[in-house]
Amino acid sequence: MKLIFIHGRDQQGKDAAQLQRIWEEAFDCGLDKAGLPRPERLAVRFPYYGDALDHLVKQLDEPLLADIKGKGIKPDTPEAEFRGQLLTEIAANAAIPDAEIAASAGLSVQEKGPLNWAWVHAILRTLDKESPFGDAVLDSFTRDVYVYLTYPAVSRQIDAIVAKTIPVGEPCVVVAHSLGTIVAYRVLSELAQTVDVRGLVTVGSPLGLTSVRDHLPVPLARPAGVKNWQNAFDKRDVVALLPLDGSTWSIQPPIENFGDVDNFTDNRHGISGYLDDATVARWVARSLV
């Protein structure tokens, strides 16, 4: 059976074959922990869109928040609102008090808001101190998610790269990480019943964030061609703190969630720290049978 790995952002300039090996080695480690053999006749596909996304973002010249502040760039309101809301959600889900955010920039709590760039920068600084993710990574993460979700020309090209690796009318399993979970959801929703996805496993996913869900096709639903959907996250992963449950994804049948991943990577978000988890590997292996 085919196993499709869909990566996230910040993979530009990397060797696709090497990235695939990293994913496969982590999955093999997870299988070992679960006491399971590697499935026979496994054919892995790794749609690589890292360079394409990087090129498209650069073409659009969407600034980072640091550029907006340092160069006096006036952001367009839709981008400002989306990225401000996304960071505000991340901070709230990480249980960071408004008072701590305000104190980091000498602001008052009354100045909070996603369109107040001083407040948004204060969120980045506070998250940099309180989480291992780092302000620069969160800054570029929000930009790339915004570009993918709001520029159809970008999403069409990225989706096409991924869609051509998913077999039509042939059983497969899809594992997606980070921004790749958004890409996977959109692609599989579009392909609908033309595909036979025995299992969709999302890890480190920002799909639980309202600001992301608001930019997805409605109504939210399990893609028609997906038989089972499981979602795993580390509670310390600031972009994936929310489970995809009834409070964020009220769909039937519900998504199975596992929030006890102990992701060993520095920012608790890396793919190796998800695929080497025994529960995640067991989910994937079960769907490959």
UniProtKB/TrEMBL annotation:
Domain AB hydrolase-1 intervals: 149-231
InterPro entries attached to this UniProt entry: AB_hydrolase_1 (IPR000073), AB_hydrolase_fold (IPR029058)
Stored SUPFAM superfamilies = alpha/beta-Hydrolases
| Pfam families referenced in this protein's UniProt entry, alphabetically | Abhydrolase_6
Determine the domain of life of the protein's source.
Bacteria
Tell me the Gene3D superfamilies matching this sequence: alpha/beta hydrolase
- Full protein name: AB hydrolase-1 domain-containing protein
